[in-house]
């Protein structure tokens, strides 16, 4: 009887709540106002023959490389950051290898790594969710072939200091170190300029968050020219579709649109954190477009009550160390005001039943 590989049979399943998501979507860290109007106009201009041809990404990659200030030979456009993670795993991992992942973090690192048959070693974050740099360094061995780090991290919003990242890069010279900068735009610090001088460094970015292109599924992976030549071997030449490619260039060109949205998100994040202090809810300072909040035993009631008020938030209580936590994305100024009104109502409604004061 035909069976999937043992590594696949053992995989954890990832089931995002995609159905019935009606309301203000503050549960998936998406752009909450949509993409630049220039992207929509470009969509209207697409001709039927453009959809009949296989997409050609090379010229777009050169322009994206110029935008990022990197060598185009070391850059690959991907079908979201998910594909970037998958390609790194497929390029470097054998079943006898080990992968180091600090948790809690983005689930797909473990899923894609484990699918290769490699052993995934999860290392708990500190009590304050700061990155366990010393513990990671202590676990590096000759079997270590990949270290995946989200910076800022999802779902905590915590960041890893540049010095710590460089320490890991130097200590794990025989391993690929993937720094996932999906939330870079809301943080502002990057290791992109270090790719040229670190043979084992890979940096991933997405255009789903600040640029509002989540539905088009487009990201980018950057590494040394020699390493990216290997990564390209395991990827499809047509992985990014013919609609996403021209739309990406329009999104990148509208600097003011992205700047304004990022500014509002940062303001909203500060406003939300101040409100959480007033409500005496524990939270963790974030450098992303979301905040992780502890609401206690009735986290499921909290999520339902927010939904009843037209706002979706994400229950993260099953993540390591996140018992009783929910993650709340931040959007525009107007949406943040709507969020805070609902938040106050919900805390009053369920506080007597156990939300921490």
Please characterize this protein's 3D structure.
- With 357 residues, the chain is α/β, with parallel strands linked by helices.
- It folds into two domains: 118 residues, Aspartate Aminotransferase, domain 1; 217 residues, Type I PLP-dependent aspartate aminotransferase-like (Major domain) (Aspartate Aminotransferase, domain 2, 3-Layer(aba) Sandwich).
- Helices cover 39% and strands 16% of the residues.
- It is built from 13 helices and 13 strands.
- Strand 5, helix 8 and strand 6 form a beta-alpha-beta unit.
- Helix 4 packs parallel to helix 10, helix 5 crosses helix 9 and helix 12 packs across helix 13.
- The radius of gyration is 21 Å and the shape is globular.
- The N and C termini lie far apart (57 Å).
In short:
The protein contains 13 helices and 13 strands. The chain is α/β, with parallel strands linked by helices.
What distinguishing features does this structure have?
single chain; 357 residues; alpha/beta; Aspartate Aminotransferase, domain 1; Aspartate Aminotransferase, domain 2; 2 domains; 7-stranded mixed sheet; 4-stranded antiparallel sheet; 13 helices; 13 strands
